[in-house]
Design goal:
Length: 453
């Protein structure tokens, strides 16, 4: 006998009430347990001097730091979620080193009673470092920089400082051998392939790259080659098979000479082919000059650069262009002004680029780019990203146009007068200022737990 609608509703209500009752008991249990727990047990879990009186630190990385690891390893400070609650703001930036590792710059900015007591530390990783060894080195320099501040907290008497002899085999952070057998050359190779398929579609991708880089105080040399091949096959509803192939290959080289703390002179060349842009083969040579208003040694915090280049270009096309060309030689020049800054309030960058063919000034391109991540007030961040381009230099467009399939698959560049991209967003967090606890239980678990389908 089937249940009436009223019976089903009553049964659902009873189930819902029972679930809410269980939830309320679960939420209340921790509070009751905390009230009934002996005072000694609470003090042992969170001593007053290591809780309220510990140094308050705001760790601000311009990349993804391993916060869980740092909170577990460095426990003599309180990590806070907002700079305004901190006694020390630690701003960490990074750049790739000549050998392919990372150079981390730690700027310790004193706040409240430590105002004016700033410091800076450096940590260098190598390509041979594992993630674990790199994060241990990162943590070592991080806590080393905190010592001068922690020494003026009630925890100072409980902090011990030890020194490890270099002969013990520990890596000397940032050191490089005087006699490098590779003469500072670093080589990288990449090879990848991917195959995906289902009943009506298959996709094949092949890619590879090879690069050689050498960076010293006087010279910066980059040489590389890249190959990308994509093939997609679709079975259409009328029984036809659509096969689409896209190829992008390139080779580049750059030689840059240091001219003091504010200038650099470069010479570069490239060759490439692209079905997307109707280019059978194109090669280019170009000298360039760059001036930085600030010293390059401050590049992790701020840069204001002016770059100018003149290039000689030779083009050969797959199909005749809209200007009736199958090949041509052109000379162009370009100028770029760029400002980038990474400060305690956030980071921002803006740039303007102008390029133009000298024999036909009307064929030009202008690109304006900007991004801001700004801390408006406690826990509230404004994020803005935008780019706008004025396009007048698509000399490679095929006269025959593009097919509907190429438009839908985005396999050909389309004629346009402008391009734009704009994003804006806000993030806001509020509540407890402390951010010390790590609990990784059920990380990444969703299916069958909170997801219904």
């Amino acid at each position: 006998m089937s249940k009436t609608p009223t019976a089903r509703v009553n049964r659902f209500r009873a189930t819902l009430v029972g679930a809410l009752a269980v939830l309320c008991v679960g939420l209340a249990a921790p509070a009751v347990a905390a009230q009934d727990a002996p005072a000694a047990a609470i003090d042992q879990a969170a001593p007053a001097e290591s809780g309220v009186d510990a140094l308050r630190v705001y760790l601000d990385c311009d990349f993804r730091c391993d916060f869980d690891f740092l909170r577990q390893e460095i426990t003599f400070v309180n990590y806070v979620r907002d700079r305004r609650d901190a006694q020390v703001h630690v701003l960490v930036t990074r750049q790739r080193t000549a050998a392919g590792g990372q150079a981390y710059t730690f700027d310790f900015i004193g706040l409240e009673e430590f105002t004016g007591q700033d410091d800076q530390q450096m940590f260098f990783s190598t390509p041979d470092d594992t993630d674990d060894s790199e994060r241990h080195g990162f943590a070592q320099i991080f806590q080393l920089g905190l010592m001068r501040y922690a020494a003026r907290t009630p925890l100072a008497g409980r902090i011990q400082i030890s020194h490890e002899d270099p002969s013990g085999g520990r890596q000397q952070l940032g050191a490089q051998p005087e006699d490098d057998p590779w003469n500072f050359w670093v080589f990288r190779a990449r090879l990848n392939t991917r195959v995906e398929g289902e009943d009506l579609e298959t996709s094949k991708t092949f890619g590879g790259s090879l690069s050689a880089n050498r960076t010293t105080d006087d010279w910066k040399i980059n040489i590389g080659a890249n190959v990308d091949y994509d093939e997609d096959t679709f079975e259409l509803s009328d029984g036809r098979t659509l096969n689409d192939v896209s190829r992008r290959n390139s080779a580049t080289s750059r030689f840059i000479k240091t001219l003091g703390e504010h200038m650099g002179l470069g010479f570069g060349g490239s060759a490439n082919t692209s079905t997307f842009r109707n280019i059978d083969v194109a090669w280019r040579v170009s000298p360039a000059f760059q001036f930085n208003l600030f010293p390059y040694s401050e590049s992790t915090r701020r840069e204001l650069t002016l770059t100018y280049a003149v290039g000689y270009n030779d083009y050969k096309y797959f199909e005749e262009t809209i200007f009736g060309k199958l090949e041509e030689t052109r000379v162009d020049h370009s100028m770029r002004v760029s400002l980038d800054t990474n400060q305690p309030w956030g980071d921002a960058g803006v740039s303007y680029e102008f390029s133009q063919f000298l024999d036909e000034p009307s064929q030009s391109r202008q690109v304006l780019f900007g991004n801001v991540e700004y801390r408006l007030f406690r826990g509230f961040f404004l994020n803005i990203f935008g780019t706008f381009s004025r396009v007048r230099d698509q000399i490679y467009l095929a006269r025959g146009g593009v097919t509907d399939e190429e438009i839908l698959l985005r396999r050909r560049d389309l004629a346009t007068d402008s391009e734009y991209n704009f994003r804006i967003g806000f993030t806001y967090a509020f509540g407890s200022i402390y951010n010390n606890v790590v609990n990784s239980r059920f990380d990444g678990a969703a299916g069958g737990f909170i997801r219904t389908f």
